[in-house]
Specification:
- This protein has about 80 residues and is mainly beta.
- Strand 4 and strand 5 form a beta hairpin.
- The radius of gyration is 13 Å and the shape is globular.
- The relative contact order is 0.31.
C-alpha cells in the first residue's frame, strides 16, 4: 500500500514492505524538508507514522529502501507514502 491511516482502528495503522528473499535491509522515511524521520534495519519492522513520539501531520512522505538479496545483488527503491488521520 502507498498510504497509512493513523486512526487506531487496526487497519493500515503501520506501513512498510514485505521483504521476501532479503538478506540485508535499510528503510528510511523523509519529510518534505528532507529530514529523516524514521529508519530501520529490521526488515520486519514497519513505520507507525510517529516521529519523536508524536504523530506526523497529514501529507506525503518520501521513502528510500536499500536491500541485499540472497543473489548477492544490492537493490535500491524509492517512493512516497501518504499519511492520513
Amino acid at each position: 500500500p502507498s498510504g497509512i491511516t493513523i486512526d487506531g482502528n487496526g487497519l493500515n495503522d503501520v506501513w512498510g514492505t514485505v521483504p521476501i528473499f532479503v538478506r540485508g535491509y535499510s528503510m528510511k522515511v523523509y519529510n518534505r524538508y528532507g529530514e529523516k524521520i524514521w529508519e530501520s534495519d529490521d526488515k520486519h519492522r514497519q513505520w507507525d507514522g510517529f516521529y519523536n513520539d508524536q504523530q506526523v501531520p497529514d501529507g506525503v512522505y518520501a521513502w528510500y529502501l536499500q536491500f541485499e538479496g540472497w543473489d548477492d545483488k544490492t537493490y535500491q527503491k524509492t517512493g512516497t507514502v501518504t499519511v492520513i488521520h
